[in-house]
Amino acid sequence: MLKQLMAIGLVVACCSGEVLATGERPPGEYPIEDRFAATVIGTPSFYKAQLPAEIPVKDYTLPGLHPVPKLFWYSEDLHFSAALQKGRAPLVFNIAGTGAGYQSKKMQALQKALYQAGFHVVNLSSPTYLNFLINASRSNLPGFLPEDAEDIYRVMELAYQKIKADADVSEFHVMGYSLGAAHAAFVAKLDQTRKSFDLQKVYMINPPVDLYSSVDILDQLLDDNVKGGVAGIGAFLDKALNRLAASYEPKDGMHFDGDFLYDAYSSWDPSTRGVGPEGRSGAAALIGTSFRISSANVVFASDLMSQAGYIIPPGTEFGRRERLDYYAKASHVVKFTEYVDHMVVPYLQKKYPGKSRKQLLGEASLRHIEAFLAGNAQVRVVTNRDEIILAPDELEYMEGLLGDRIKVFDHGGHCGNIDSKESVADMVAFLRGGQ
What we know:
Elements: H1 2-7, H2 10-16, H3 35-41, E1 57-62, E2 78-83, E3 89-95, H4 105-116, E4 120-124, H5 130-136, H6 145-163, E5 169-177, H7 179-194, E6 201-205, H8 211-225, H9 233-247, H10 258-267, H11 270-273, H12 282-306, H13 325-333, H14 336-351, H15 357-363, H16 370-375, E7 379-384, H17 394-402, E8 406-409, H18 421-432
Parallel strand pairs: 3-4, 3-5, 5-6, 6-7, 7-8
Antiparallel strand pairs: 1-2, 2-4
Helix pairs in contact: 2-3, 2-9, 2-10, 2-12, 3-12, 6-7, 8-12, 12-13
């Protein structure tokens, strides 16, 4: 469903009412200046890094920690992938962002870029991705970065043992995008004491500073930009599909990719297409809707697996063909911040008596490990000045903390430019040893 929403991202561009400035653009400069449209559209092909169409990737499985409910029969065992060089090379563990799996489009692009540059690459799903949540999360309640990092670290150890015979590794690095970037930092901090890998470099793409603050921003996008909030999602998507149909040209065919969305964005003329004032919030509405769908999946699966009893009565068992209409509706009403407040925090307060909500939320922030980040010359952050998940002072905080170890592009929104020529070049140069 999330992929379908992102495909409908044409609406974002068309609804935004913002068109690109005319004139030549310097080679490599990311072209989309609206931060919400950039987040959804991504990078048009003529600004993308040149990546191989195919690389030798193999999928692997690891045994899960918990019995898998019948409802999740299709997601038994934990999955990851590895692209291995024939000779000796550094290995990069690559961690996905919120709700994303190891095979997501962004993860595949990063894996291709790194493999092309001479690295072994292991792609890992986010702890908020269903397959990881039900098979590798000890609490089944992802969202507390220190515990997420321990789960990821355990998977890294098992994954390496699985591929060790086929991978001649010179050194280890870790990276991730979005939530996965924050996870990478916490994993690297954990490795300082565990020492399983002696991780050398940490590369963070568009990380949140404070997880709770960032998800609050994303939750609010739905409330502020979809009329009626959750109840208005259906009407919003109907409008999106109507605008998509208005842009369809049969002779050109229909390809839901970045180029198609970019062309629609560039050529949209609100004066002739009748876009109303509400259209300018279309991009934000789509992002908020997509995030709510992702968080609803976390709420439902976490409640079922942990027996928290938040929306599903403890002890409830679902068959493979069970109707879930009621629970689906209930899950979509829950904001991610409410999931944290009502499910994650109570679990943590039982596990760590005496810790306040404020303390626990603070521990799910880069500020909690700022001494590690400030004192480690091998940590690098890349982000955008128009990033949508950062509070007003958080970019300045990272710039002050990291100095010349942070690269800030002007445009790209949240990960919209992740596979641009400039972004990929920066990633490869840093992991190879350059600054």
